[in-house]
Amino acid sequence: MTIILTILFMGLMGCETGPVPEAEPETELHQEVIEITLATTTSTYDSGLLHEILPEFEEAHNIEVNIISVGTGQAIETGKRGDCDIILVHARDLEEQFVEDGYGTERFDVMYNDFVLVGPEGDPGNVYDSADINEALDNIVDHAAKEGFPFLSRGDDSGTHTKEMNLWEVAGYDQVTEEEWYDSMGQGMGDTLVACNEREGYVLADRGTFLSMEDKLPNLEIVFEEDDELTNPYGIIPVNPDEHTHVKYEEAQLIVEFFTSEETQQKISEYGIDEYGEPLFFPDA
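RE: above sequence
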């Protein structure tokens, strides 16, 4: 028994290779990843822009950005409830009200694109040659009433939906939602475009999402564009920590700095050119 114990002891001694090294101090790479939530409109998500540029931010700051992709109205409501740390949306009046009411700290310009009217290939409603957006909507109404082609609306309180309703009102169609040919989908931009393609109707869309999905929409084409009333600016706003003390305000500020930086603005200006022949967004910081 003594011999066995001696052999075991000698074996253990033989396994020693020197003192146990001290644990290395925790570096930034080993620190726990911080999660932050960005509520944004479906157009920034569906276009693929965020997937293109956010990984660089996440790697640089060891921050994981969780994205809530909804309509602008829902994104703003998410911010009001404190269920996100920052919002990136496109409805200027609603954004400014969000800040004025104390839910957001400050609005920062990020980028813009524009809205386009999309319709059936061949434009049976003769919208293409319209002098302005009001005449374009007049032609759609006449065509829809006579031929039965539908107009599809997102109907989701998004920035696009808000803009669409404003355009109808200015054109003199306050009761358009009551028309049989008007279909309020309650869906995001991508789903609404797919439905419009299947039904060969008309729809107001942001250019970025349409271009990013164009190969999946063989029955649709842009029938009206480049009107001053169709400009579509995007703003980014951190949620106010005085209103919701749990929000990650410092990290939200880092996202603002990232989006408005010269390097990211340059990437925004180039996004989409290789694949679509034109940028999907234009920098505006």
